[in-house]
Amino acid sequence: MKILLAVDGSTYTKKMLAYLATHESLLNKDNNFTVLTVHLPIPARARAAVGKDIVEDYYKDDAEKVLAPIDKFLARHGIQAKSVWKAGNVGETIATYAEAGKFDMLVMGSHGHGSFLNMVLGSVATKVLANCKTPVLLVR
Hints:
Rossmann fold, five-stranded parallel sheet
């Protein structure tokens, strides 16, 4: 199975990884894993002021802080995963990447806000579910 893990380095990512660790059918060497983290884009004026190279370095450094612990976790379980970072609207970018990559499943943590807070604040998970045809496993 081709599985996309959407991560942000939060405690919700850690809960998702703990869930995977307890479900051998998901976290095994037979599955093909890609780990994705998405950053909100830096505003255009700020990008123009500091330059493209500095912005790219910022994104790469920030992504490494999120992805490195995930890579270590997966390696402890004998899994080599592809790591990817993107910049954009987080929910839409995750959904688009899952669709474009033809993943069998997308796994991500969820903050578990109630429906009222989702309506007011929005939710990455809600946006992913609204924009993604790939099956999504949300872990709270």
